[in-house]
Amino acid sequence: MKQPCVYIVASKRRGTLYTGVTANLPRRAFEHREGLVKGFSTKYGCKILVWYELAKA
Questions:
Q1: Long-range pairs of 19-25 with CB within 8 A, sequence gap ≥ 24
Q2: How buried is residue 49: exposed, middle or buried, by Cβ count under 10 Å (0-12/13-18/19+)?
Q3: pLDDT at residue number 3
Q4: Which domain holds residue 46?
Q5: Cβ proximity of 12 and 46 under 8 Å
Q6: How many helices (H) and strands (E) are present in the chain, helices listed first?
Q7: pLDDT under 70: residue ranges of the chain
C-alpha cells in the first residue's frame, strides 16, 4: 500500500534543502541518495533525509 508523505532532504548540516511529495518514501529516498533523478536535488547534493510526515487519511 502506498502512503503519501511530504519530506525534506538536505545537502549537509545548515545546507541546501529540498522539499518533495511522494507516495513511496523508501524508493524516493534511495533515488536522492544515489542521484538517480537529475534536477535540483542532484545539482545541489541533497541526499540526507531530515524530515517527513505521512499524510492523514
A1: 25/52
A2: middle
A3: 86
A4: 5-54
A5: no
A6: 2, 3
A7: 1, 57
Query: What cell numbers appear for 47 in the block?
Result: 541526499
Looking at the 3D structure of the chain, how many domains does it have?
1
Helix (H) or strand (E) holding 19: strand 17-22
Separation of alpha carbons 55 and 10, rounded Å: 21
Enter the pTM of the model.
0.90
Residue 57 CA to residue 53 CA, distance in Å, equals 12
| Cα–Cα distance measured from residue 27 to residue 3, given in angstroms and rounded to the nearest whole number | 12
Those residues with Cβ within 8 angstroms of residue 39's Cβ, 6 or more apart along the chain or in another chain: none
- Is-contact 2 24, C-beta < 8 A? yes
